[in-house]
Amino acid sequence: MEEVVTQFEQFFDSSMRRQLTELASAYPEKRSLEVDFAELEKFNTDLADGLLVNPDEYISAARKALANSSQAYLPASVQGEAKKFQPHVRVKNLRYPEVSVQFLGSEHLNKLVKVDGVVSWITQISPCMKTAVWECLHCEHKEKTFTDKHTIKQPRVCSACARSNFKLVEESSEFINIQRANMQDLVENLRGNAPTTHVELWMEDDIVNRIAPGEKVTISGILRLRPVKEGKGQSSGHSSVYAKFLDVVHLEKKEEDFEELEVTPEEETRIIELSKDKKLYEKIVKSIAPGIFGYDEMKQSIALQLFGGTPNKFLPDGQRIRNDVHVLLIGDPGTSKSTLLSYVSRLAPKCIMVGGKSASSVGLTASAEKDEITGGWILKAGAMVLANGGMVCVDELDKMNDEDRGAMHQSMEQQIISVAKAGLITQFQSRTSVLAAANPKHGRFDPNALPAQQFDLSPTLLSRFDLIFPIRDVLDESQDRKIASHILLGHKLAAEKQKPEDDSPVMPAIPIDFLRKYIAFARKNIFPILSQEASDKIKEFYLEMRRMGKQQNNYPITARYIEGIIRLSEASAKVRLSQVVEVQDAERAIALQQFVLKEVFMDKDTGRIDSDIISIGQPKSKIDKMRTILSIIGVLEKKFDQVDIDDVVKDADDAAIDNQTCRRIIDDLLRQGELFSPKPGYIKNTTRSKD
């Protein structure tokens, strides 16, 4: 290998003098020399190829050459002392072989490879013995051995007395920091329900604590094997199964892009042309789950969610403004909610789909777990961290328990996830839009009750969704005929293996692969800002709604809805590839918001829009009636120890609250614990009874 050492010396002296000077002056704070593979390949192709095939020997030779070449640049106090100057050689910008995590196999063993992925968990730093010092138990002579990452090798015999009994002298041994992590395939490279594959990363010395769960990384590393740990009761013989890991040579964090799809110049030209199509919005809506009939407003909202608002906006106080749009679908069984989510998960350039029954707060957000190997802690990222910069589809949200749903609150609003466990306090980025589906509280919507009162979700979670769509299975022969015809056409074409006509209702107006690139292009390159005219339009809508609320003594919308309308307006501009949000974009966002307000926020008793239905869980009209009934009960309690329900109904009738409504509200107050029944037909105020 002396020839290889000489070649590396020549490379360092001819191509890396400035880097050698910087390393020598900054050592030991800086302990690595980054070698650009492209420069090495330009200097000597055979040397570069040898590094890929035989990385251990070539990197060792490069380190020797580095120590020799750097002597002239070192301070006088370090020159000539090899022990004091032992930098790493870290090779970056490998152009080949670039391997996906799922395809790392035996053919790559002990070779240098380049792998892109996302970090799913990471351990704490642990000390690892690099050089072991052994003391002979007979003559006290000391021997040194070099260790690998898994085993400490004992000398065979003492070089002084030829005996073989030693003890390990830990205090004289040399340690370095190591850290393990787990990397999986990039989410955007997975389609549909394709399983994710993982590989473990081992990092040491100056590249520990450089990455965090949820971050995208490019790794240059050597694929190695370690024996799988034997379980209890298994044979103590050698295992034939090994676990693979990447011994990291170099790592680089990647930009948090929404999409890594490559758009060719020809495709970019087609994208620009499509953005000028007068029927652009109509075509995009028809391209979202075309096999599902109808739901145009809902599909338009999902389209805007896919494009998202303008990112990286900050208030003067440094607070980041959320740009991701959250959409909730709550519908009767059989209304194709799951099918719609599944389609969107394939369409979105970066998306993870999870099911409410199987999802936990840990699987959705993040967690800290005990590391079986080192005894330390592992920080694990959940779906909302791994999909950072993209989208998460949550099916059957209502099947999750309250604690698991509660873990979504911080992620959806602040777009960070905090973990505090066993002294570990950290935060992860989760700039992720959420598309969720759920069923009504009792399986189907009751047409006689407010839809919002049938959502089995907390008001705090509901308030984080920009748009909420109730999907009712309405008995309507004309609509049913259209739905049946649409489904039958899709099945007929599938059975006959026919390609639908371009204008077929079951055919996407824009091919899914091209639409995915269109979305990615818009999110990467278009960052619209509000025009004054659009701002005035949004302000006018908000003030009009507030004026209406003042006249009707309720709260139709709150300031929170302004931000939602801005996000939707920005997304509408992105669809057109416009850097300016125009009036038409504001009008489109307002129209969607008005549709949802009428569907979800309309108080049937008063015919008025009331935001309290979501923010508090009850319309203001009902809250006022509750207060009136509690007041009536309070007055009667001054006369009687126990209040007869019939007396309450009678007095409530004088206050314009009918019999049925009064009794229903009393039942609600009993369930909420505001009242209790000491005996059938009588009630008491819970608070007063405690006094």
Shape: elongated
β-sheet strand percentage? 15-25%
Fraction in helix: 25-40%
The beta-strand count equals 28
pLDDT averaged over residues: 82
Low-confidence stretches: 232-237
* CATH superfamily label of the largest domain: P-loop containing nucleotide triphosphate hydrolases
Q: What is the CA-CA span between the terminal residues?
A: 90 Å
**What does the largest sheet look like?**
5 strands, mixed, barrel
Structural class, please?
Answer: alpha/beta
Rg calc: 33 Å
- What is the CATH class designation of the largest domain? Alpha Beta
Number of helices: 24
Number of domain modules: 4
CATH architecture of the largest domain: 3-Layer(aba) Sandwich
Placed side by side, the strands forming the largest sheet appear as 3-7-8-10-9
What is the compact description of this entry?
The protein is of the alpha/beta class and 691 residues long. It is built from 24 helices and 28 strands. It has a five-stranded mixed barrel with strand order 3-7-8-10-9. Strands 14-17-20-13-21 form a five-stranded parallel beta sheet.
Structure overview:
This protein is of the alpha/beta class and 691 residues long. The chain has four domains: 2-92, mini-chromosome maintenance (MCM) complex, chain A, domain 1; 101-253, OB fold (Dihydrolipoamide Acetyltransferase, E2P); 265-525, Rossmann fold; 620-690, Winged helix-like DNA-binding domain superfamily/Winged helix DNA-binding domain (Arc Repressor Mutant, subunit A, Orthogonal Bundle), CATH 1.10.10. Helices cover 37% and strands 22% of the residues. It contains 24 helices and 28 strands. Strands 3-7-8-10-9 form a five-stranded mixed β-barrel. Strands 14-17-20-13-21 form a five-stranded parallel β-sheet. The protein has a three-stranded antiparallel β-sheet with strand order 26-28-27. Helix 8 (296-307) crosses helix 18 and helix 21 (620-637) crosses helix 23 (659-672). The radius of gyration is 33 Å and the shape is elongated. The chain starts with a helix and ends with a helix. The model is unreliable at 232-237 (pLDDT under 50).
